[in-house]
Specification:
Blueprint (H helix, E strand, L loop, with lengths): L13 H14 L5 H13 L3 H6 L7 H15 L4 H5 L1 E4 L2 E4 L12 H8 L8 E4 L5 H9 L5 E5 L2 H13 L5 E4 L11 E6 L21 H4 L7 H13 E10 L5 H5 L11 E4 L5 E7 L3
Parallel strand pairs: 3-4, 3-6, 4-5, 6-7
Antiparallel strand pairs: 1-2, 7-9, 8-9
Helix pairs in contact: 1-2, 1-4, 2-4, 6-7
Length: about 290
């Protein structure tokens, strides 16, 4: 278990509280300790970060100090900052997140970019395994004429996704179901999916923070390919001829996923790399 905070954060000014919290977080090995402290204190006070810089001498009330101390302790315990604040930015949009959904990652924005490049030539777009709804809401926000449908096997995740769609004023059709079971043959123009791809065999070595995220959104069976296998097979039926399947890839997952694509059903795939040079998005079209 992580240590209890070794220094009281009370009573203190904003600058003192930030300095003490950042030191605690750094001592425990938390990444970006100063930034984390700033995000947590901003959330605690209900202000934007510039307020912290402009009012370093402001004294925290006992209630504010206790709340900040609780947030810092939660982070020391391994709880992700996004679950403490309940927010995560994705594709320039702020989303509500909680432990019912995966925290959106920056690399997943490549899926949105690839989808938006082809919205004008597709019919219905399905965000499969929508989680927080970040992909569906981002696509609809930037391509308002597109019909976007979002599915998830998790009812609690769909409630989060609906909340985000309402918050950002976009119309997304939500469906509770598994993969493409709810859709007619050749009814979709595009399927976009960030599937669970972490192998269960890797569980013992995972970062502590990942254990807070929903396992159904993280783990893809023993080898990480379980959902890919089922989805690629069913997508070939649900997509219209020349429809597009866009998949996020796990680290070193490209060759294994490409091996699942039959020449009879699919054209040659195109793969995009993320900023770290890792193969991250596979895009492939169904043959006519």
């Amino acid at each position: 278990m992580p240590p209890e905070p070794r220094a009281s954060l009370t009573p203190a000014s904003i600058s003192q509280a930030l300095r003490k919290a950042a030191q605690l977080l750094e001592d425990y090995g938390t990444g970006a300790p100063r930034l984390t402290a700033e995000v947590l204190l901003s959330h605690c006070l209900g202000v934007e970060k510039p307020h912290l810089y402009g009012h370093p001498g402001q004294i925290l009330s006992p209630k504010q100090s206790a709340g900040f101390e609780e947030y810092v302790q939660q982070r020391l315990d391994g709880k992700p900052t996004q679950y403490i604040t309940g927010r995560q930015e994705f594709y320039g949009i702020s989303f509500h997140v909680d432990p019912d959904v995966l925290i959106p990652r920056p690399e997943t924005e490549l899926l949105v970019e690839e989808a938006l490049a082809h919205t004008s030539e597709t019919g219905q777009i399905l965000d499969l395994g929508t989680g927080s709804g970040c992909i569906a809401v981002a696509i609809k926000s930037n391509a308002p004429r597109s019909r976007v449908i979002a599915t998830d096997i998790s009812g609690p995740a769909l409630r989060v996704a609906r909340r985000n769609a309402v918050e950002h004023g976009v119309q997304v059709d939500f469906v509770h179901g598994d993969l493409v079971d709810a859709f007619r043959r050749e009814s979709l123009g595009m399927i976009v999916c960030n599937p669970p791809y972490v192998p269960l065999k890797d569980l013992p070595g995972l970062q502590h923070e990942l254990r807070y995220e929903p396992g159904v959104a993280l783990f893809g069976g023993q080898d990480g390919l379980e959902v890919y296998r089922r989805l690629i097979k069913s997508a070939a039926s649900a997509l219209k001829p020349e429809g597009r399947l866009l998949l996020e890839l796990g680290y070193n997952g490209r060759s294994s996923v490409e091996a699942l694509l039959s020449d009879a059903d699919w054209h040659l795939p195109i793969v995009r790399t993320d900023l770290a040079g890792i193969d991250r998005v596979l895009a492939v079209r169904r043959r006519s």
